[in-house]
Amino acid sequence: MATTTDTHCPYCSLQCGMRLAVPDGGAGSGDSAGSGSGGALPLVVERPEFPVNRGALCGKGQNAAALLNPAARLTTPLLRERGNGRHRGELRAASWDEALDRVAGGFAAVRAEHGADAVGVFGGGGLTNEKAYQLGKFARVALGTATIDYNGRFCMSSAAAGNRAAFGLDRGLPFPLADIPHTECLILVGGNPAETMPPALRYFRELRENGGTLIVVDPRRTRTAEQADIHLRSLPGADLALALGLLHLLIADGMVDTAFVAARTTGFEEARAAAMAHWPERVERLTGVPAAQLRDVARRFGQARTGMVLTARGPEQQSKGTDTVKAWINLCLASGKAGRPYSGYGCLTGQGNGQGGREHGQKADQLPGYRSIDDPAAREHVARVWGVDPATLPRAGRSAYELLDSLGRPGPDGVRALLVMGSNPVVSAPRAAHVTERLRALDLLVVSDLALSETAQLADVVLPSAQWAEETGTMTNLEGRVVLRRRAVDPPPGVRGDLWLIRELARRLGFEQGFDDDPETVFDELRRASAGGPADYSGITYERVRAEDGVFWPCPAPDHPGTPRLFLDAFATPDGRARFSAVTHRPAAEEPDTDYPLRLTTGRVLSQYQSGTQTRRVSALNSAAPGPFVELHPLLARRLDVTEGELLAVTSRRGRAVAPARITDTIRPDTVFMPFHWAGAGRANTLTNPALDPTSKMPEFKVCAVRVETVRAEAAARARARTPEPPPSPGSHPTPGSAPGAPS
Ligand code: SF4
Questions:
Q1: What is the pTM assigned to this prediction?
Q2: How far is CA 43 from the centre of its chain?
């Protein structure tokens, strides 16, 4: 016999509904993950009535119960005894009291010596709303630090900035996924849901079955691109130029919806002038997309009565990601495809709570409810809910990469102690070898995670945290639907929840009250803190979420139905009009040159997730995707004399990574691709460029310049360099223009 609990997947932003069947007597340490002993683990069962995925799950969701195997978990806090000088000492088991005393004492000491901002907090886009909220409050109130940001900065921050500039509000999708099949033309830019969120693909398939057109923009012919009517195989980093070229054609061919533009937007003239400098042949040169194909896409999108543009990390993870998003929004606005049914711009959010995680205060510049930390009224409101003087709230801190780059640095801007919760920047941050060095330079690194991630391995204190089905909390999916992940099993003995951990640290820092560890109590406080803000959750309760299978924010009152579709009457700007932006093309921060002649782009694969802290511990997923690889075109492989599976060295200005070759004609010949889920020699983020978008502070993960050669050729070159040149034979003289010893 088993007890069933309705919950949601531990991974991506689709937050698929699932049911966990827990054997009576409680979950044991069964063998679903292949290494446990004792009773069986819970079973993942379909939950067909949940509307988003209607029972469908990808392999990650199907194998999620393996994460509950205690054999793969940390079950006791770990402490590192610092040795003398640079000797770091070993991690050893410790009690919770000892570990928490060390953390609180260490934070207090750093704060006393270097100031509050020298203690930093780095959160995660997978944390529940309650944890994200409480972590932001802990930083601002208990630590008094401005130094907080999270790995979601690396995910959707450019889309967030573009959304806020154009519409006055940032929600990933302004409509439910169920609207997608009813639009006539959809352009998906730089996203691959066939691998990142397969159950969502059904919506795109239904769109085509209904006679709609699916257009995919991607440098690779991905599994998603294979299902499209048109695939634009653009250069990495060229999505801004592509959007400008399409807007140019809409204008030139008279496809602008002038009535919509006049009634519901501002700024068209400036955007029009900027687009006119991007004629099709110029855009062909900038993007690699033939002008004829551009004209075809512009005609289809411009003439459709309804249309959508969805972006994902491809165009967003660029040093011009915000302008790129604005350019695609311009296209929607000019053609009247926003603020209307079955039309609009949206972002396919990545992480499980990428949406909610950026709404409630773990972002450097935000307070709960998506309020600006620099807005006096917002500070007043939130301070009242928190019972503190608004003047004591810190101002905006530094963005994720800037924060990581400042770790351990001497001087007033250096961060000396850091709490990392639910994030693994050793694998996921750009220029990862440098970030690893900065983490090592800290006086005190504290990591709370479910397993000994690569970042936890560097820590002075490791705190084993509960996860997913071991605790209750809300998540906000990519549609803005707040869902409830219910606790189905107890955490393993010795493991505690992050809300408890925050409460205990706050107590040790002198805050006996104000940090509850009951998720529903924390959510009720979050509702009050968000009331009246852009992301207003005040009308959402656990009871409603359970009864309604999720509630869409904004929901400003208990009797408000929630808001599945935004902007139908007005945009969320002061005058209700959407804003065009006059953006123009600019190249990537790093273009190919003689030393680094190829472009590298990075991404995800079907069976792994983000930095792999979860999925690399699930045997079924690991055997499907066991390690990194370098994807390259057969023409490039021939030029570099590469055979399938041969080890390749990929080198950028930041470092060198080694992984086997995977030869495929689905990629452009001038571009190579690496997935970013692994640490070690094949870590893709060793190579990536931390050049930041000036507005969103998004690093340029999606394109940098690299050199690729076989490890064999590299070794041969090294051997040649070490071998002294043979002396010239007696009597021989080099011919003019030739080097001694050069082959004739
Ligand atoms: Fe989980 Fe995302 Fe897969 Fe759904 S698509 S099962 S939420 S990983």
A1: 0.93
A2: 28
